[in-house]
Amino acid sequence: MLCFTHVAPLPLFSSISLPASLHFKSFRTRMSSSSSSIDSAPPPHPPDNGIVLGCGGIAVDFLATVDSYPQPDDKIRSTSLKVQGGGNAGNALTCAARLGLTSRLISKVANDSQGKEILEELESDGVDTSFLVVSKEGNTPFTYIIVDKQTKTRTCIHTPGEPPMVPTDLSESSMLSALDRASIAYFDVRLHETALVIAKEAARKKIPILVDAEKKREGLDDLLQLADYVVCTAKFPQAWTEASSTPGALVSMLLRLPKLKFVIVTLGEEGCVMLQRASKEDSESKETDIEKLLETLKHKTGSTATFPTCVSSETTKLKASGIGTVSGRLFLGTAEQIPPEDLVDTTGAGDAFIGAVLYAICARMPPEKMLPFAAQVAACKCRALGARTGLPRRTDPRLAPFLV
Known about the structure:
Layout: H1 20-40, E1 51-55, E2 59-66, E3 80-86, H2 88-99, E4 102-106, E5 108-110, H3 113-124, E6 127-128, E7 133-135, E8 142-148, E9 153-159, H4 172-179, E10 184-187, H5 192-204, E11 209-213, H6 220-226, E12 229-232, H7 236-241, H8 246-256, E13 262-266, E14 272-277, E15 287-289, H9 290-301, E16 310-312, E17 316-320, E18 324-333, H10 349-362, H11 367-381
Parallel strand pairs: 1-4, 1-10, 2-8, 4-6, 5-7, 10-11, 11-12, 12-13, 15-17
Antiparallel strand pairs: 2-3, 8-9, 13-14, 14-18, 16-18, 17-18
């Protein structure tokens, strides 16, 4: 069995429903007066038909914590060691399952001790592993992760599984069963050939698709063309579009991907930025420079906020110089400012964020609530070693403000 540790409680926080200048005081007052009822009241039921199908990477993570990252040819000792499941899809689907969604995972492991441990851990978290392929030979994917206590960073060395998954590993009947009644399909762009077959069928069935665009990968462009939602890392938008700035790159992505409803770029401790396409074009709205608009939103969040918050623009024509114009809303979400002594490990923080976004989409949360919720879930994860140990369950009182 894989090991787990416990996580200390975090402060509660909620999304913005008031002007930014009023939010913090009124929220603290409300939480102070109702904390006892929140602690005792059970959360509401998960979303009806909240079924997420994920296809992508799973692995065993070997996490070694060190006082500082070693120099070439150094010999150092770890201060702690943890072995647990990992991989983008495995982490995101575990997060979604703990939050209450029915999570189905398509991936591949080998029939070795590590593969058996992965299946056991996923099943213990409520992830449906009946669609996973188990190879009789080869090796299960695994990752060495060095967690640097000094810089609060992690370095990953990944070894892919052998033999790799191919579309013929998954029968058509299994794929259709996995997609049955699914609310959303998620792809991390690993296993890209199999993922594309599933994504095309999901699109045909009008099942919304979320793509995790971590970096340029083989098969990514084909999956992006089918995506309704994209969550990407800080460097990806500019790398993919060759735009000179992140805001301009987001406009470019919406212009190049006509099916896309929103794109979120995660920025670590700086929070996230989201561009949402307007449901219909407003010919009368004036054009607004997206670079200047983002700066305006940054001033609205304030520099002293410690809890995740969100501010947004009105629906308008957002212009990126040299790229074009798209009608939509710009959102800026902040991250929790975790005290240095409480920040343990950022491994899998992006996966936790995506797992929360999957839940939020199924629960029909508005962006103003979704972004702080996802930031809260990611912050919980960062207070424990490994990608999954700190993932909160839906009964966690820290999530109560979002699950009402």
